[in-house]
Amino acid sequence: MPSSRLAEGELTHQERVPVDMDLADAQWEAYVEALRAEGFTPVDVPPADELADSVFIEDALVMVGDTAVVTRPGAESRRPEIEAAEQTARELGLRIERIVEPGTLDGGDVLPIGDVLYVGRGGRTNAEGIRQLRAIARRHGRDVVAVPVTKALHLKSAVTALPDGTVVGHPSLIDDVSMWRNFLPMPEVEGGHVVVLSDDAVLMAASAPQSAELIRSLGYRVVTVDISEFEKLEGCVTCLSVLVR
Ligand code: CIR
Q1: SUPFAM superfamilies per the record (predicted)?
Q2: Using a 6 Å cutoff on CB, does residue 6 contact ligand 1?
Q3: Measured from the CA of 78, which atom of ligand 1 is nearest?
Q4: Considering the chain, what is the average pLDDT of its residues?
Q5: What ipTM does the predicted assembly reach?
Q6: Which of 71, 156, 233 best tests ligand 1's pocket when mutated (most atoms within 8 Å of CB)?
Q7: How many angstroms does the Cα of residue 235 sit away from the middle of ligand 1?
Q8: Tens digits of residue pLDDT in 18-46
């Protein structure tokens, strides 16, 4: 659940604006309920109230097969978040691997498409973090493809993928659109953020209604959640959970 200090979280591209904490808590509950309604069993990572960004759990853990990679977040203020994340992964019986100093890697920079992990090299994830993830991924039969990210906080702030592998995103945030073979531009920035729920359903933020319509027109069921208070801290719909399948 969100820290009561959420409003003090890291900001890179946006101006700080007031956060309605009651609304943030309600939006969090609705997000968790939406996942439950889709058949997931939500497991809470113990709340870390002193860590403003701790609700953005995606950045602390990356799933590679049945292994949880505990990251080393690029923002120093976020490094202590990994403790509770690792503890929860252990309690779930997952195998653990780690990104270690001097590597940095945020889970928001890791986009799995099939057996490939696309990894954003930007402000939070460095070359050493990518090298370490590549070595871990290889042991699990997966490839890593590194992608420069200079216009967005994380790779997944710029692009994500539909269940069929189509990459969606807003061109203004993408360094090189031509590197994505199967790219579909979205009319809104937040339209580039989808959580794959199943082969035919995705979760999206309510802030991207035109993109949701476009994706519905392709035959997908689109579940929407309002995450306005998290978007004020540069959080996307992907960043509030880690899906363990
Ligand atoms: C940060 O700057 O680290 C947080 N305020 C937001 C992180 C959002 N994470 C994500 O989209 N994966």
Answers
A1: Pentein
A2: no
A3: 3
A4: 97
A5: 0.98
A6: 233
A7: 5
A8: 999 999 999 999 999 999 999 999 999 98
The answer to whether 97 and 69 are in contact (CB under 8 A) is yes
Task: Summarize the confidence of residues 7-16 as an average pLDDT.
Answer: 98
Regarding the beta carbon of 82 and ligand 1, being less than 6 Å apart is answered no
Answer whether 239 contacts ligand 1 (Cβ < 6 A): yes
Overall CATH class of domain 6-231: alpha beta
User: Measured between alpha carbons, how far is 151 from 104 in angstroms, rounded to an integer?
Assistant: 19
Cβ of 108 closer than 6 Å to ligand 1, yes or no, is: yes
